[in-house]
Write a structure and sequence with these properties.
Helix content: 25-40%
Shape: globular
Distance between the termini: 5 Å
Strand order of the largest sheet: 1-2-6-7-8-4-5
Largest sheet: 7 strands, mixed
């Protein structure tokens, strides 16, 4: 899973570099559901709000250098609707490992292959950057109380039916009832463990698990593409 995340991040970085030179950008500052265009041509990049992620606030750490994080409060306003903007100073993820970030925007690719990128910013907007989900993780993902939740989620993530019997649709939806039953079992264990957490971690874990169920992640092998910070952090 970890190597797959790194490859995804590198691939996305290359895709962005290629596209931003010529592609028009569609911006929707009010909705995460639909986008409007100011050009007659079909856009390749669409920037939208992402309430499912933004609602959690500053709960992310940057854990990859695949895409740069720029230093400077003035960069934030420039980067919100312009992923091609490049600041003059960058910072290593190692130097900001304890800085928490919030997801502000998502940039989707249209008509080309590539994972979404997310605009993340620190609380004072000192650090900002566009990065794939592979470069982000929940700040407390390694905390001991959270490990029982993670353990169950890893079992679900690793239970792809592709290598076993191919019982899934072209969209990655699992149709094997035995596999689904195992996923449901481990999901229940994750919820049970999450209920034992305290404070904000409990709220975050239970909220993420609820979203996971609502998004149909249990019967989809492509769960890493879902907008779910907890799932991004499982590797």
């Amino acid at each position: 899973m970890k190597s797959r995340k790194i490859l995804t991040a590198l691939f996305t970085a290359a895709s962005v570099a290629t596209l931003l030179g010529t592609a028009p950008i569609t911006v929707n500052a009010a909705s995460s559901v639909s986008a409007t265009t100011s050009t007659k041509k079909s856009p390749k990049l669409i920037i939208q709000n992402t309430p499912k992620l933004s609602k959690w606030g500053y709960v992310l750490n940057v854990n990859s250098s695949a895409q740069p994080i720029y230093v400077g409060k003035s960069n934030y306003a420039k980067m919100v609707n312009d992923p091609s903007f490049k600041g003059t100073e960058t910072v290593s993820p190692k130097k900001i490992k304890n800085v928490r970030f919030k997801v502000e925007k998502v940039m989707h690719f249209k008509g080309v292959s590539g994972s979404p990128e997310y605009l993340v910013t620190s609380k004072d907007h000192k650090y900002n950057g566009w990065t794939p989900s592979a470069g982000l993780q929940y700040y407390a993902i390694n905390s001991k109380p959270l490990q029982k939740v993670i353990k169950s989620l890893k079992k679900i993530e690793g239970r792809s039916p592709i290598k076993q019997n191919g019982k899934f649709t072209s969209k990655g939806t699992i149709t094997d009832r035995k596999w689904l039953a195992k996923n449901e079992h481990d999901y229940a264990l994750a919820v049970k463990a999450a209920k034992k957490l305290k404070g904000n971690q409990r709220k975050f874990a239970l909220g993420s698990l609820k979203q996971m169920k609502q998004d149909g992640v249990l019967n989809n092998v492509m769960w890493q593409e879902k907008d779910n910070i907890l799932l991004w952090s499982v590797n």
